Amino acid sequence: MDKTTKTILIAAGAGLLVLILLTIVGGVLAYRYFRVVSSGVSMSSNLQTPVVVTDSGLLSKSLFLEDTQIGSVTDIAMGEFDPSPGVEIGVAGSQGALFVDDEGNVQSSVTFSGMASHVDIIDADGDGVCEFMDRGGWAVAASLIDHQGNALWTYGAGMPGVDDMAAGDIDGDGALEFVVGFNGGGGVHLVETNGTQVWRQPDGNVWHVELADADGDGTLEIVHSNAGGEMKVRDQQGAVVRQARPGSYFSHYFSLCKWPSKEGGEHALLAENGTIWVSDFTGKTVTQFNAPQCGRLGHARGVPVKLKSDQPEYFAVAVDFFPQDAGILYVYDAAGALVYQEILGESCPSIAALSLGESETEALLVGGNGKVWRYEVASPD
């Protein structure tokens, strides 16, 4: 065997060894992830039949809106979103969006040119007419969609796939930036409003990303989870300024919420093992709630809601189990007591507390499959 052949064989063997090691590491990570997912599925298998589990007589429920053409409702917000003057309620789903009045009557609609994942309503250019951010996920690239439903740009097509995307003005220049988290070793990317990359930083399985003022200095930081179950906080250049391990495994399924009221600061919200956790951005548990049947790996989203004008805000949490098409709604009083629990029997990927009409109180709106449910204080008999 000549020297050249020997060198080629050694290089090929080394390359094969690296490939085998990468496959093993990837397999271990995938096993760990899907083992957790599988345990969540088994624990939430009893959530397919709608039923009110706990009811103190506080709430009444009605159908606020139904239109199957918009798909799964992923965002509900109030603002000036449409070209017509005045405030409306925006309801965005995986297939389109509706703009409705306080009674759920449709004023205008948008159909997306392609199927989306989890869509948020945003105003990307500050002109008072909204766009839509598709956060992406696995097989679906992240994208910015214009008000007519057409993609302005997409980001992260290919492998490793996008896990999530969030938007905010992280550098204070008045324009939105987008933070994209990738599966595998794709890391964290910062993207400008036009979809071009500013920087990328390494990390593993960046399952969920958010932008929040994590240290109270008036500027936004990046908050994300990763394969190690850590909460990581990064500055506008992507440098890690803090990392922690909250009391529960910090997974793909955290979100941001105001606590203890709408005037309070943002916190991280997570549901796991029969408990809903509210944490600060050092990973410290601020409060926790008893959440029967919430299992593991349900995506918790929560809002303070002013149900009664003479009482402090209640706290409502919708825990969504996707792709199992199941969800649970919990409502807690100011003392943390569970006053309402409902097995919804369908996915519930959005929740909002809005003041409708001239009311001094708020209605709780929960988005499901092509519909929005309305909860408010029950009228006395």
Gyration radius from CA atoms, angstroms: 22 Å
Order of helices and strands: HEEEEEEEEEEEEEEEEEEEEEEEEEEEEE
Query: Averaging pLDDT over every residue, what do you get?
Result: 88
Strand content: 35-45%
Strand runs, count:
29
Q: Could you give a short account of the major beta sheet?
A: 5 strands, antiparallel
Indicate the percent of residues in helices. 10-25%
Distance between the termini: 95 Å
- How many helical stretches? 1
> Uncertain runs with pLDDT below 50, 5 residues or more?
3-44
Question: Strand order of the main beta sheet, please?
Answer: 1-26-25-24-23
Overall, the morphology is: globular
Assembly state (oligomeric)? single chain
Which class best fits the helix and strand makeup?
A: mainly beta
Structure description:
- By secondary structure, this protein is mainly beta.
- Helices cover 11% and strands 42% of the residues.
- It has 1 helix and 29 strands.
- The strands form 7 sheets. A 5-stranded antiparallel sheet has the order 1-26-25-24-23, with no helix packed on it. A 4-stranded antiparallel sheet has the order 2-29-28-27, with no helix packed on it. The protein has a 4-stranded antiparallel sheet with strand order 3-4-5-6, with no helix packed on it.
- It starts with a helix and ends with a strand.
